[in-house]
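Batch 3, record 17
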Amino acid sequence: MKTIIYTCPYVPAEWIAAHGLHANRLLLGRVDSGFSPARAEGVCPYVRSFIGEVMNNKGADGVVVTTVCDQMRRAFDIIVRHCDIPVFLMNVPSTWQTLAAQKLYVDELKRLSGFLVGLGGKSPSKDTLAQTMLDYDDTRTSVRLAREHLSARRFAEAIAAGGSFKGEAFGDGSSGSGHPQPIRQAQGSAALEAATLRVPLAIVGGPLMRADLDLFDMIEQSGGRVVLDATETGERGMCPKFDRRRLREDPLPELAHAYFAGIPDASRRPNNELYRWLKRELADRAVRGIIFRRYVWCDLWHAELGRLKDWSDLPVLDIDSAGDNAMDLPRIQNRIRAFLEMLQ
Amino acid sequence: MTHAPERITLEEWDVQYEKLHRAGMREPRYGGPLSRHVEDGDHRLGRLRYDNSAAALRLWNFLLTEEDRLHEARAAGNKIVGTMKDLGTVPVMAYCFDNVTAFYPDGAWWIPCVMEGSDGSLEVADSLGIDESFCPVRAMLGAFVTGAHFPIPDMLICSVGATCDDFSAIAQRLNGLGHPIFWWEIPHRRCPERDEAGVILPGGLTAPKSQVEFVESELERVKAALEELAGARLDDERLSAGIAQANRVRQYLAELRNLAFTAERCPLPALEMLIAEMLAIHFCSDRPETIAVLGELLEEVKVRANAGLGVLDAGAARIFWVNPVADLQVMNLLEDCGGRVCGTEYLFTHALDAIPQDVPPLEALARCALADPMAGSSIDRAERICADVRRFGAEAVLISRIPGASHCALEGQVISEVVAEQLDIPVLEIEVPPVTDSMSATLRTRLEALVETARCRRRTTQGIRRSG
Amino acid sequence: MICAGIDAGSRTIKVMLIDADSLEIVGKGLADQGVEQDKLATSLFRRVLKSNGATGKDVAAIVATGYGRNAVNMADTTITEITCHAVGVHHLVPEAHTVIDIGGQDSKLVRLDGAGKVRDFAMNDRCAAGTGRFLEVTARRLGVGLDALGRLAAGSRRPAAISSMCVVFAETEITGLLACGTGREDIVAGVQAAIAARIVGMAGRSVEPPIVFTGGVAMVSGMTTALQTALGQAVTVAPEPQMTGALGAAILASKRLREATA
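Prediction for the assembled complex:
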C-alpha cells in the first residue's frame, strides 16, 4: 500500500486512508536530519527537520504540505526543486468564519483527492469514506479514553501513533481495543498517589518532534504532570468527534467541518477560538501552570507568548528550542525544575 | 532641469533649495527645505544622499508629510482606513470614496530607521513579546501603542493566508491588544490543473479561475465593509474610475522604471526610485498628488535620459535589487560602491503592473491581488526576477534579506538557485536591519565585491567577444 | 550551626555561610569556575570555612544552586538559581517585587509576590547577547577593563545601534563601528542598551517595582543606568549582587533543616 506522509493536523488521515493509501502523519526526528539550507538562521527547526525527513524518506510515495505556516509553504518550493517524491501543497485558509473559506477547504480536499488518485489511490464512495471516518473516530475515542490510564508521554505517543493505536501496550502490557486495565490496577496505588500529587500542567504550542517527548518525562521527574497536551501533535491537533448523523448523511462535509472548524490553532485569523478552547480545557483539568513550547523562528507561536501571558492568570514558562536537543536539554531541564519549584 | 544631476547631502540640499527658489521653483503646500524634517526627529535624513532635482525634493517632502495629511484627513472628518499586507489592492477601492483616506501602517517599519531608533517603537514591540526575531514591521505595533505617528485608523483591513507569518502574527497581536481587524483571505496562488479553467494575471502569471473568483468574493466583502464605513455605495462605474486613476500611477511608474533602469547613465538614484515605487501602494494618502509628483519626476528623468546625463558614473555595475530594505542608507551604499539599481522586486510587483480594464473592475482587482509575489511560490517570484533581469540588462542580483521575515530564510535560497540556473550571473544575499551603521563596513565589503565581480565578468565577456 | 549555600555558576563559584538560626552571614567566598567543578567548589567551601574558624562538622545543611549545581557532590540537595535568587533578594530587600539577574552567560527576570515567593520568571539562557559575555567581548575589543565601561557610557551622546542578535556578529559590528570612527563611549552605551533591551523583552509590558538587580553584571558600571533607561523605572543593585544566589541557597538550607527537625 502506498504511503503518504504529512505533518499538518488539517490534513485528514481518513481522507487519505479512504483512498486506499496509508496516511502517515510524521512525528519528526531531530533537526539535523539531513537537510542543510544555505542558511539555518531564520529557518524554523521543525521545517528544517521536515525537509530533511522528506529528502531522506525511502518509504513515502507522496507528501502533503499545507499553507498553515509560511515557512512550510517555502519548504514546498525547496522540496519540489530537490526531491523526486510527488508533493502536494494544500491551501488551508487562515480565515475560518466565512462560508467561502470553509468551501475553499472542501475544494482543497477534493483537489487533494485528485493528487491521491494520481498516485494510485481510488476516489472513495460515500460509504467507504463514512466507514473510514468511523474507524478513525473510534480510534481517537480510544486514545482519549486512555488518557487517564497512561503517562503523559505515553498518551502523546498514542496520539502520534494515530490510526495505528488500537489500545495496545498500556503500561501493564495488556492489549486489545477499548477497555484497558485502569492504571490503579496496573501500577498500584503508590503510583496513582504520586501522580495525583504532581502539579497539573498544560503544554501549549506548535508541533513537537520525537526528541521533545522527553519533555514529558522531565516534567514528571521535576514533580509535574502534563494533564493537557495542547500542542499541535497533542490533543489540540486531534480532530473532534464526528457528528455521526451528519457523517452518515454526507461524510465529506462532516469531515471538512470537523477538521477545519474543530482544530483551534495560532495560525487562524482571528485565533480567538484557540483561547476559548484553552480556557475551557485549562479549567476542566484544573491546570496550575502552562509550559509554552515554541521553536526559535516560529513567528506564529512566538507572537502568542506575550498574549498568553496577558490573557492567562496562570504562570507561563517559555521554552524556546532551536531544535538542537543536546544543547537544549540542560537549559530546558533547568527551566522546568525552576517552574515546578515555583509552583510547589 | 537647470543643473547637473548629482547626489547631494542634506546640508547641500539647503544650499540647493535656495538656488532652486531663486530659479523660480514652485512648491506644493507641503513643500519646504528637507532639513526641516530632521527637527521632527527624522535624524536619518542627515546621513542620506539625495537626488538634487526639484522633482526629488517634491517626492521627499510628499513622503515625509504623509502623517500630517493623515491627521488633516482625520480632522476634516474623513474615515481613515489602515490597509495591511496586501500592498496595493484595497487602497484602489478605498480611494474611490470621497471621504476615505487609506494608508499602510506596515510603512511604520521605516520609522526606526528614519528616526534612528529614537522613536522607541521597537522597544514597545519588545515589551509586547515581539522581539528582533520578527521582521522590523514590528515597529507598527509600537506606532499603534504610542499613537505618536499616524492617527489610529477607523478600520483595519488585513490580508492573510498566503502572506508572511511575522506580519500575520504581528497583526494578530495587534488584534489581541484590542484593535479589531477585518481579515480577508488571499489563497496561495497556483497553476491551474488540467481540468481547471485558467486566468492570465497581470505580470504574465496564471491562476485557476476558481481562485480569482474566491479572491473576488473576498474583495466583495472588503468593499461592503468600506461602503458601510463610508456611508456610500461603490458601484462598478466608480470603481472603474478608481482603477483608471491607479493605472495612471502605474503607467508613470512603468515608464519611470523603464527609463531609470535602462538608460545608459543612471538618471535617478536608487533611493528616489524606491520611494517612487512605494507610491504605487497607497498613493501616500493623496492619489491626485501622487500622480503629479510622479509626473514631475518622470519629466526630470526623461530630460536627463535624453541628454545622456546621470547621477552615477557611466560604468556603474547594473544590479537587480530584490526585497525592500529596512535601512534606506543601504540604497546609497550600493551606489557609493560603484553599483546602480537596474531592476527591482520589492515584493509588490502586483502594485506596479497595470490593473486590467477589460474585465469587471472587482475581478480585475482580484486578478491583481492574486498576482502578489508573496501569494505564490518563491519559484514564480524567481522566474519574474529572471525575466526582469533580462529586460533591464542587470549584471548581478542582490537579495536583501529582511531580518526575521519568515519568507526570506528559504526564499533567498530558491531565488539564488533559479537565477544561477537561468542566468548564470552573480547573486549576493545581505541582511539589512533598520539601522546598519555598525555593519556598514561589512556591507560595503560585500557590495564592493559584488560590483567588482560584475565588472570583471563584463570585461571577461568583452574580451571573449573581441577574441572570438 | 551553619548552613551553606553554594552557587556553582557558569563563570564563578560562590559560597555563603549563614547562622542556621539567625540567618546572619558568617562567611562568604568566590572563585573562578573551571572544568573540575566539584573539586573547585569543595576547595572554595573548605577555604571559606577555615577562614571563618569553622569546619565541616559545623555545617548542618548544604544547598547547591546554579548551572553546575548537580556537580556539587557535597550538597544535600539542589535548588534552581531562580528560587535561590528570589529568596536571597527577598532576605536583603524584602520589598522587592522584581529581580533582574544578569550573569556571565545568562540573564533572568523573576517576579516576586508580597511574600517573596516566585510568581513568574523568564530566562535568556540560549543567547549570549543579553549577558555579561557581551560586555566582556566589548571591553576586550575596546581595550578597556569592565570597570571602565560605566565611565565610557556616561560620556555617550549617541549610543550606537547594535543590530546583531548574536554576540559573535555583534563583535564584528563593534569592529565596524570603530573603523567608522564611532567613539568608544557610544559603542559601550549601545552595547549596554542592547543588553537592557533584552531584559525589556523578557519583562513584557509591566515591571513591578521595586526592581533589584543582581548577578555579576550588576557590578559593571553603567548597566544599572542602562536598565533604568530601558525600563523607565528605578533599579537598585542588591547588596552583594553576586552572592544573592548563594545566600538564597543557604537560607533554603536553613529552612530545610528546620523542617527536618520540626
